[in-house]
């Protein structure tokens, strides 16, 4: 297969200054919903995004996670402040402005999808494309405005926002977990070694791991579970509101109370998770802890708080876990990575994942702060298979009528 010198150079050791826009690295990003992949080198931070719209999604999601953080605004905890008029409630006008900005993005994506469907006749199995076709078949080729039609078809604004919500719910969460995975692997090289040995013995070097390998890679699956336990991406969960009076363990919870389930704290319970500040995938090993089945229902439940609980439990859990499994197993399969030497301290600087203040951002989704990491393919054979997979993926995107990565 032919590939250019630029890609070759980047394959040997990715220095962020050299990551080409259409680099195979984007393959990893493509495999997740979208990964805001930050790479730092020295003091410089680089964000890999191959088109402005992707960058805009990152910004919108970043904005969403900041504003949605429980307790970020005084009005979250002092209900009286919510009664203030707009002029005295700057957080409300900020939310309004950001909301309009979000709608520009989501509305724009909806318009693009409509154009693709109506003018190019592009048929895809995507949420928007499928919905627009079904809505048109029901007699609503156009349905401007917000809310629903009398027979409950979503109008454009609601449809755009619904699609955007799925994008937001699934992208930053998965992306954060992948960044955290790299961080934990740098801190726990023995875990990384064992996971890689498992992958090598099951998958070999002739192909990448795929979803069918999951049952034969219990340690890798356990690593993903342990990752979600150690640092659930939505660290405090999503606030819920009690819709009736309740009494729980001696606490009276009046109707309308905001209830926050602190997922991180639940996962640090030393009774359920002995030695909780240790990244130990073994606690999720064994038939009873496998995500896809097993007899011990309680064990399965305890591994799942990262996705919330109850009626509003994450709708995309299976997609999220599958993305993490495939991305993490492929990173381990194909790439060597390490923290480069920091000349300032004369050794590699590896952030401590247990130091919340120093290592993680604040916000409703806690993301590792940018850290230096250098990737290189494990062997030329691994590199070749990654390149091939990248090319195949480009063809798939092309067949679906979507723009590919620049080469
Ligand atoms: C590692 C990845 C993910 C994590 C850690 C995660 C976590 C969560 C959490 C904690 C909630 C709130 C649950 C509650 O209120 O109790 C939630 C809700 C939700 N998630 Fe996820 N999520 C992930 C991936 C995804 C993906 C990939 C999608 C879509 C494809 C998705 C779609 C949703 C939706 C639509 C909701 C709202 C559900 C509702 O309110 O009824 N999530 N997620």
Automatic annotation (TrEMBL):
Report the family membership.
Belongs to the cytochrome P450 family.
Q: What is this protein called?
A: Cytochrome P450
Q: Does the keyword Transmembrane helix apply?
A: yes
Q: Per the entry, which co-factors are needed?
A: heme
Name the principal localization, coarsely classed.
Answer: membrane
Instruction: Enumerate the PANTHER family for this protein.
Output: CYTOCHROME P450 MONOOXYGENASE ALNH-RELATED, P450, PUTATIVE (EUROFUNG)-RELATED-RELATED
Q: Where does heme bind?
A: 314
Tagged with keyword Transmembrane: yes
Q: Which UniProt keywords apply?
A: Heme, Iron, Membrane, Metal-binding, Monooxygenase, Oxidoreductase, Transmembrane, Transmembrane helix
Going by the entry's taxonomy, the superkingdom of the source organism is recorded as Eukaryota
| One GO molecular-function entry | heme binding
């Amino acid at each position: 297969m032919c590939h250019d010198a630029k890609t070759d150079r980047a394959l040997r050791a990715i220095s962020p200054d050299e990551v080409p826009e259409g680099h195979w690295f984007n393959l990893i990003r493509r495999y997740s919903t979208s990964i805001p992949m930050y790479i730092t080198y020295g003091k410089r931070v680089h964000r890999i995004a191959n088109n402005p719209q992707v960058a805009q999604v990152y910004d919108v999601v970043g904005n969403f996670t900041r504003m949605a953080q429980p307790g970020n605004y005084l009005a979250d905890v002092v209900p009286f402040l919510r009664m203030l008029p707009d002029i005295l409630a700057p957080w409300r006008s900020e939310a309004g402005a950001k909301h309009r900005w979000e709608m520009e993005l989501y509305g724009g994506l909806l318009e693009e999808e409509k154009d693709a469907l109506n003018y190019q006749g592009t048929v895809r199995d995507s949420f928007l494309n499928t919905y627009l076709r079904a809505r048109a078949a029901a007699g609503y080729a156009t349905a401007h405005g917000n809310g629903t039609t009398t027979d409950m078809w979503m109008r454009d604004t609601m449809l755009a926002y619904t699609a955007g919500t799925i994008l937001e719910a699934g992208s930053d969460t998965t992306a954060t977990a992948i960044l955290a995975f790299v961080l934990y692997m740098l801190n726990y090289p023995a875990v990384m070694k064992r996971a890689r040995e498992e992958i090598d013995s099951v998958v070999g070097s002739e192909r990448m791991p795929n979803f069918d390998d999951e049952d034969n890679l219990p340690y890798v699956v356990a690593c993903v579970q342990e990752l979600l336990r150690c640092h659930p991406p939505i660290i405090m969960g999503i606030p819920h509101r009690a819709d009736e009076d309740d009494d729980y363990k001696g606490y009276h919870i009046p109707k309308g109370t905001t209830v926050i389930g602190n997922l991180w704290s639940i996962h640090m319970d030393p009774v359920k998770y002995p030695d909780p500040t240790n990244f130990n995938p073994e606690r999720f090993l064994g038939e009873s802890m496998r995500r896809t089945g097993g007899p011990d229902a309680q064990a399965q439940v305890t591994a799942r708080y990262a996705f919330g609980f109850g009626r509003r439990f994450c709708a995309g859990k299976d997609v999220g876990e599958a993305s993490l499994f495939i991305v993490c197993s492929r990173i381990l399969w194909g790439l060597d990575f390490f923290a480069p030497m920091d000349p300032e301290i004369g050794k590699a600087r590896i952030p401590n994942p247990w130091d919340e203040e120093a290592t993680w951002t604040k916000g409703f989704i806690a993301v590792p702060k940018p850290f230096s990491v250098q990737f290189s393919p494990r062997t030329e054979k691994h590199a070749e298979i990654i390149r091939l997979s990248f090319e195949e993926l480009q063809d798939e995107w092309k067949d679906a009528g979507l723009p590919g990565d620049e080469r």
